[in-house]
Automatic annotation (TrEMBL):
Organism from which the protein derives: Vulpes vulpes (Red fox)
Coiled-coil segments on the chain, per record: none
PANTHER family named in the record: CARBON CATABOLITE REPRESSOR PROTEIN 4, NOCTURNIN
Family, similarity comment: Belongs to the CCR4/nocturin family.
Classification via InterPro entries: CCR4/nocturin_mRNA_transcr, Deadenylase_nocturnin, Endo/exonu/phosph_ase_sf, Endo/exonuclease/phosphatase
Protein name, as recorded: Nocturnin
Keywords attached to this entry: Hydrolase
Protein's UniProt keywords contain Hydrolase: yes
Limits of the Endonuclease/exonuclease/phosphatase domain: 80-348
Length: 365
């Protein structure tokens, strides 16, 4: 192990022992990580692999070329959407009955999450169920060149779990060498005018290469059956906020989220038919371009097997094109015990897309 690697190892190891945050609300205070040295992503990946040496290898997933006929002179914008599974919920609430507790150990699961991010190197990262922002993702990702924002849920269920690490929430990261932050909004979603426990972050970014602006949003809607109308109302509130932020759809938009809703639900239909002119990127992987994938989450609880499509990347269909999308895991790769597992850290799959701006007259978003 060379000097650089030892230095990195200590950087990673520093994030391992974070249980102190449950005694002191350290999640409210951002450590001063801006002055820390940058990390080489390749070296951090090696460190993660060293921690994971006893585990089976990562699953192979390929990008599917969606061959749009709009060549762009600028590099694509890679966006990752991922509900990473809150550590406190995975260990204390979710009841993944087929997942061995050792597979959920944070010291290793953290490295599996980082490995997934480092493997695809997104320009923008939209995460849900983040309950290790300040002690893990913010310090490490800032050293990889990302600027991050975290918005915790007001009454996170993580806080009910013994030895929790603070509340979970949404996090949004973007690469500072590619984008400039124009404005940022933390949104507590309402349903029928009532404040709810669900949140969103919406940021307007400017591409440094092209000077084009766009809005990126991340959300995690209310879970569980019986809450369909609530989710629908939260979706309407988010759409209304995004109408304002995009100045009535003048600014191109990408919305990532765990919507906790199948495509048959009302909230999905609101997004599909909104005047923001959105399309769902992962539909483009289907033969006819009209069908969502068969699943984005697959787990076994005491109540039985839960296989659902709940996670989406919506985008302004006139202003943006999806150049490629990362294929999902097959049933065989996921295995009989489903997710999470020793080789995949969350019950939700990551979604990754490469976007480019369409060359087109203004006002046709
Ligand atoms: N501390 C306090 O004083 C208060 C605490 N609370 C807590 O907040 C909770 C409600 O919060 P809310 O945000 O509305 O929660 P949600 O119903 O949205 O669910 C919270 C989490 O539970 C996961 N989940 C979904 N289905 C199940 C399931 N069947 N079993 C276990 N976990 C599941 C979800 O994961 P996914 O999205 O991946 O499906 C989600 O991350 C209450 O249960 C309570 O624990 C509420 C009020 C006050
Ligand atoms: Mg969950």
């Amino acid at each position: 192990m060379g000097n650089g690697t030892s230095r990195l190892y200590s950087a990673l190891a520093k994030t391992l022992n974070s249980s102190a945050a449950s005694q002191h609300p350290e999640y409210l205070v951002s450590p001063d990580s801006e002055h820390l040295e940058p990390i080489d992503p390749k070296e951090l990946l090696e460190e993660c692999r060293a921690v994971l040496h006893t585990r089976p290898p990562r699953f192979q997933r390929d990008f599917v070329d969606l061959r749009t006929d709009c060549p762009s002179s600028h590099p694509p914008i890679r966006v990752m959407q991922w509900n990473i599974l809150a550590q406190a919920l995975g260990e204390g609430k979710d009841n993944f009955v087929q997942c061995p507790v050792e597979a959920l150990k944070w010291e290793e699961r953290k490295c599996l999450i980082l490995e997934e991010i480092l493997a695809y190197q997104p320009d923008i990262l939209c995460l849900q169920e983040v309950d290790h922002y300040f002690d893990t993702f913010q310090p490490l990702l800032s050293r990889l060149g990302y600027q991050g924002t975290f918005f915790p849920k007001p009454w996170s269920p993580c806080l009910d779990v013994e030895h929790n690490n603070g509340p979970d929430g949404c996090a949004l990261f973007f690469l500072q060498n590619r984008f400039k932050l124009v404005n940022s909004a933390n949104i507590r979603l309402t349903a029928m005018t009532l404040k709810t426990n669900q949140v969103a972050i919406a940021q307007t970014l400017e591409c440094k290469e092209s000077s084009r602006q766009f809005c990126i949003a991340v959300t995690h809607l209310k879970a569980r059956t019986g809450w369909e109308r609530f989710r629908s109302a939260q979706g309407c509130d988010l759409l209304q906020n995004l109408q304002n932020i995009t100045q009535g759809a003048k600014i191109p938009l990408i919305v990532c989220g765990d919507f906790n809703a199948e495509p048959t639900e009302e909230v999905y239909k609101h997004f599909a038919s909104s005047s923001l002119n959105l399309n769902s990127a992962y539909k483009l992987l289907s033969a006819d371009g009209q069908s969502e994938p068969p699943y984005t989450t697959w787990k076994i609880r005491t109540s039985g097997e839960c296989r659902h499509t709940l996670d989406y990347i919506w985008y302004s269909k006139h202003a943006l094109s999806v150049k490629s999308a990362l294929d999902l895991l097959t049933e065989e790769q996921i295995g009989p015990n489903r997710l999470p597992s020793f080789n995949y850290p969350s019950d939700h799959l990551s979604l990754v897309c490469d976007f480019s701006f369409n060359e087109e007259p203004d006002g046709l978003l």
